[in-house]
Write a structure and sequence with these properties.
There is one protein chain. By secondary structure, this protein is an alpha/beta fold. About 35% of the residues lie in helices and about 20% in strands. It has helices at about 10-20, 35-40, 55-60, 70-75, 80-85, 115-120, 135-140, 155-170, 185-190, 195-205, and strands at about 5, 25-30, 50, 60-65, 85-90, 95, 105, 125-130, 150-155, 175-180. The protein has an 8-stranded mixed beta sheet, sandwiched between helices. Helix 2 links the parallel strand 2 and strand 3. The longest helix has 13 residues, at about 155-170. The protein is globular.
Length: about 210
């Protein structure tokens, strides 16, 4: 059992907490108001506990960033000491909203949130993954008619193997996990999010993933 901290207790964070705790991990759900989060998410597995984000980052072995991508860099840079030596799995996309609230532009064109995080947190092992799909697909890839792809970007090969193991706990088969290489490759998957609002406007809010077909 691994102690996994999740920063962000919205739909993404609570969805991941539910599946990872069901897989036997102890999950700490970190939010700005842990008591409200505990009340709102009553019924989560007893392996889930609640804390503020600083405590979550300090006590977890592996940390998942599920905070809003446009504010993640400032939030996590403030946790540099707590995140030192940890694996940080970044599942967020840093975008600016269009008029209808859907992603419009990238916050870091020519770079990526994951690269910015790695630069700001040199003692942390950042891995980008699960940012190319609706949050429900992150924990139930088998629900899509076409098998989806989970991409991995990160500089440490052993760390990426650890993250791939956690993806397995979320239901991802090894053949559907695509290791793209170093952290700079995250700019490719983060840019993929720009296709999503056009699809959502035409077809509605349905489960999807931007995947590799072979």
């Amino acid at each position: 059992m691994t102690n996994i901290g999740i920063l962000g207790a919205g739909r993404v964070g609570t969805n991941l907490a539910r599946k990872l705790s069901a897989a036997g991990h102890h999950v700490i759900l970190g939010s700005q108001n842990p008591e409200d989060t505990a009340t709102r998410t009553a019924g989560l597995d007893p392996h889930v506990s609640f804390a503020d984000q600083r405590t979550t980052a300090r006590t977890a072995d592996i940390v998942i960033n599920a905070t809003p991508g446009d504010t993640s860099l400032d939030r996590l840079t403030d946790l540099r000491t707590e995140l030192a030596g940890k694996i940080l799995i970044d599942v967020s996309n840093a975008t600016r909203d269009a008029a209808d609230g859907l992603p419009g532009d990238l916050c870091y064109p020519g770079s990526s949130l994951a690269e910015k995080l790695q630069g700001a947190l040199p003692d942390t092992h950042v891995v980008k993954t699960l940012n190319t799909m609706l949050f429900t697909v992150m924990t139930a890839p088998e629900t899509l008619t076409t098998p989806p792809t989970a991409y991995l970007s990160g500089d440490d090969e052993d760390v990426k193997k650890t993250v791939a193991g956690l993806l397995g706990d979320l239901g991802w088969q090894p053949e559907r996990i695509e290791d793209l290489g170093g952290i700079t490759t995250a700019r490719a998957t983060e840019a993929m999010i720009l296709v999503v609002p056009h699809i959502l406007r035409r077809h509605g809010f349905k489960p999807f993933a931007v995947s590799l077909a072979r």
